[in-house]
Amino acid sequence: MNVLLDYLPEFRDGFLGTLAITASSALLALVLGVLIAGFRVSPIPPLRAFGTAWVTVLRNTPLTLLFLVAFFVVPQVLFQGASPYVLATLALGFYTSSFVCEAVRSGINTVPLGQAEAARSLGMTFSQTLSQIVLPQATRTVLPPLSSIFIALTKNSAIAGAFGYGELFNVSKLLNDKGYAIAWIFLWTALAYLIITFAISAVFRLLERRMGVAR
Predict the structure, then answer these.
(1) Interior CA angle at 140 toward 138 and 141, to 5°?
(2) Per the similarity annotation, which family is this (predicted)?
(3) Which of 144, 179, 185, 199 is the most exposed place for a label (fewest CB within 10 A)?
(4) Is 27:98 a contact under the CB 8 Å cutoff?
């Protein structure tokens, strides 16, 4: 208990840091994932090929390797002087977007094909059909897997601590180096992660109830 009380500001900053990186990465992953899912079901072959390559490469690349690229390659090529927060967001967001893409694509496939055909017969474009007809219906199916994906994202954010970003794992490493009992450090850190993951689960359960179809 003493380690929590003595270093409460550090735990607070680490908790907020984990919240920040989780939220920003989830938003980036959601935007990219929906966009790439649209590419994967697009009638344009180059877009389908790009979407397939995106998912194949990112899903089969270790997340740690993506962090290494983000922190040691990206600053030299694109964003010189970028903060660890931005670089960690890019690594986590890009990696998670591949899983979001496949979840959204699976949801799109549950919508009857006749829905899209009817929209096209009314003169709607592919983007209009996808955004106004297909995705709203697919959302109900997509919510449960998205919940699991974002919970996994929260736990994956711990890797950012190994690269100097101030989140919960980074705080745990700092206190462990100072000689505090590792069991108590891990206990408080685990409880903090549980709070975040339970909150994500509660939000998605609420969304599922609101968007569920009465049977």
Answers:
(1) 70
(2) Belongs to the binding-protein-dependent transport system permease family. HisMQ subfamily.
(3) 179
(4) no
**In this structure, what token pair is assigned to residue 187?**
């206990």
Question: What is the Cα–Cα distance from 66 to 145, expressed in whole angstroms?
Answer: 23
- CB-based burial of residue 67 (10 Å sphere; 0-12 exposed, 13-18 middle, 19+ buried)? buried
Tens digit of each residue's pLDDT (9 = 90 or more) over 17-50: 899 999 999 999 999 999 999 999 888 899 999 9
| Residues recorded for the chain | 215
- The DSSP symbol for 132 reads I
C-alpha to C-alpha distance for 118 and 212, rounded to whole angstroms = 24
Q: Residue 35 falls within a domain, yes or no? A: yes
Buried b (16+ CB within 10 A) or exposed e, 163-185: bebbbbbbbbebbeeeebeeeeb
Question: Is the pLDDT assigned to residue 91 strictly greater than 90?
Answer: yes
**Per residue in 167-211, pLDDT tens?**
777 777 777 766 666 777 778 788 888 999 999 999 999 988 887
Q: What count of Cα atoms within 13 Å lies in the side-chain half-sphere of residue 11? A: 20
Is residue 11 within 8 A of residue 73, CB to CB? The reply is no
CATH number at residue 158: 1.10.3720.10
Q: Which of 148, 44, 151, 48 is nearest to 105 (CA)?
A: 48
Residue type, 207: L
pTM of the model: 0.87
Residue 63: domain span: 20-167
